[in-house]
Write a structure and sequence with these properties.
It contains eight helices and eight strands; from the N terminus they run αααβαβαββαβαβαββ. By secondary structure, it is an alpha/beta fold. The chain has a single domain, classed as Rossmann fold, CATH 3.40.50. Strands 1, 2, 3, 4, 5, 6, 7 and 8 form an eight-stranded mixed beta sheet that branches. The longest helix has 17 residues. The termini are far apart. Bound molecules: S-adenosylmethionine. S-adenosylmethionine binds next to helix 1, helix 4 and strand 2.
Length: 217
Amino acid sequence: MTNLEPMASFFAARVGMYDEHMLNDVEGCREGYLTMAELVPEGTESLLDLGCGTGLELDEIFKKLPDASVTGIDLTQAMLDRLKEKHPYKSLNLICGDYFSVALGEGVYDCAVSFQTMHHFSHEKKTELYRKICKALKSYGVYIECDYMVEAQEEEDFWFAENERIRKEQNIPLDEFFHYDTPCTVDNQIQMLKDAGFSQAEKVFRIENTTIIVAKK
Ligand SMILES: C[S@@+](CC[C@H](N)C(=O)[O-])C[C@H]1O[C@@H](n2cnc3c(N)ncnc32)[C@H](O)[C@@H]1O
């Protein structure tokens, strides 16, 4: 068993090959980036991207909405630096920080997105974050999440149990940000979004485990 790596150093160490890896090796991501851009409503002016990384979803969203004003939050400075290099002239407010702690404001954004970042956290932490995202959206706002999700509860339970076991072995507290995948079921994801105050949440895309849910405020 290899040692778990702290979240930010895990991604910083892989930034050089990150875009190629996501586009070519993770089933459904290439199509997911295109679909997410299609789902962002026309007329979106202010967009929040949680865990924006190098901005693969923004590469597509900017083709549709070149003038959108984007706030991107990510723990890993090296990923944000790469995003800024790709889009030096876009309206990008990049925050290097933890989206659970960064204040998101109230009624600020037309749309919020996250792509392949939420599959590392507990139901409780995610529900609390979704509540914050819902508040940060304007009254008609939408949140679009693309993530690694599973179908069966047993599969989710297995990954969460493995996470606990490995952390215990390596003396890593459950609440510290280390990289380990704990995907949730699509049904649980939808329930968490509804529990957080979204009026609607539905699955609109799935290729292998790459799944998109659209949630309306
Ligand atoms: C798999 S990458 C996805 C990046 C980008 N959205 C994409 O699809 O190409 C996950 C990103 O989430 C970021 N991340 C993980 N936990 C975070 C947290 N608590 N707050 C902010 N960013 C976080 C990581 O630093 C990493 O850049």
